[in-house]
Amino acid sequence: MSLPDPSYFPSLAIVIVNWNSYEVTANCLESLRSLDYPKFTVVVVDNGSEDDSANRLVSSFPEITLLRNTENLGFTGGNNTGIQFALENDFELVMLLNNDTIVTPDLAGLLVKRLVSDPDIGAVQPKILYNKERDVIWNAGGVFNSFFFTSKTRGFNEKDRGQYDESNEVDWITGCCFLTRSEIIKQIGLLDQKFFIYYEDSDWSFKIRKLGYKLVYDGSSIVYHEVGMSEENRKGHNEGNVSPFAHYMVIRNHLYMVRRYARGVSLIGAWLNLTGKIVLRLGYFVIRGRFKKLRFALRGVQHGMTR
């Protein structure tokens, strides 16, 4: 599975979204300086930051291409700005990469090798480990239960003992590090900005598979992830580690996915499962007195069902 002469390597745009996160994004960009892939451009999209992080990033990392959104368009809108730039400038490959990641030098080369090894592969992801616990897995590819319409992350919180070193086909791949071909993006379209954040990677995965392509997990490549650094509204709610906004988005977007893709017998399992989860979550918020989360969750149900 070797690549041709370096002059024939597919051109690669690595798209990273920054939002008021200079230190986090800078750590990611510093790691990208060691990337040994010969033809790549780092495209940083600033999502309307108010902390001057955009100017600081372009000053510290003059090699990047910096694009600016005037407001926070979320993970989807921010990435779409970078993806559109990549398409307009004829990059052959596009990688979405979370700003709270640290890459290994051979990441791009290994993922590109896997992608070009088979024309039926539509997208690939690496093994993703926690940055602070580099022997613990965060994501080793996604499994999807079509009846209950739920997704599961393989290897989550497991010690990495090599059990996921083998590369194989998976049901969905994470937007934390998502490599695909520009020609595929032209067919499926940009990320759906309706999602804002969460489930947009599942939506893209479904669309790619619908075209007949495979999604592949590459166990030989590694990314380290800080996890959760980009969540909006993480502070100031005093109701646990997960923000009310995150609960709103997860509930709303799961409902979007069910309404968009569940059909036939899957509709029965999907609605039974989702209804049960929502009722339990609402009950938990009431018992624990987390009424801000309760309001956000109820709003998520309302918007997920009506918008």
Explain this structure:
- The structure is a single chain.
- Helix 1 (22-32) runs parallel beside helix 2 (53-60), helix 7 (244-261) packs antiparallel against helix 8 and helix 7 packs parallel to helix 9 (291-306).
- The chain has 307 residues and is an alpha/beta fold.
- It contains 9 helices and 12 strands.
- Strand 1, helix 1 and strand 2 (40-47) form a beta-alpha-beta unit.
N-end to C-end Cα span: 46 Å
Radius of gyration, CA atoms, in whole angstroms: 19 Å
| Helix-residue proportion | 25-40%
Record field, number of beta strands: 12
Instruction: Name the helix and strand elements from N-terminus to C-terminus, one letter apiece.
Output: EHEHEHEEHEEEEEEHHEHHH
Count of DSSP H/I helices: 9
Choose one word for the global shape.
globular
How big a fraction of the residues is strand?
15-25%
State the low-pLDDT regions, or none: 230-236
Specify the biggest β-sheet. 10 strands, mixed
Structural class category: alpha/beta
Mean pLDDT: 93
Topology diagram in text:
Blueprint: E1 12-18, H1 22-32, E2 40-47, H2 53-60, E3 65-69, H3 74-88, E4 93-97, E5 101-103, H4 107-116, E6 121-130, E7 137-139, E8 142-145, E9 150-153, E10 168-170, E11 177-181, H5 182-188, H6 200-210, E12 214-225, H7 244-261, H8 265-288, H9 291-306
Parallel strand pairs: 1-2, 1-4, 2-3, 6-12
Antiparallel strand pairs: 4-11, 5-12, 6-7, 6-11, 8-9, 10-12
Helix pairs in contact: 1-2, 7-8, 7-9, 8-9
Brief description of this entry?
39% of the residues lie in helices and 22% in strands. It is of the alpha/beta class.
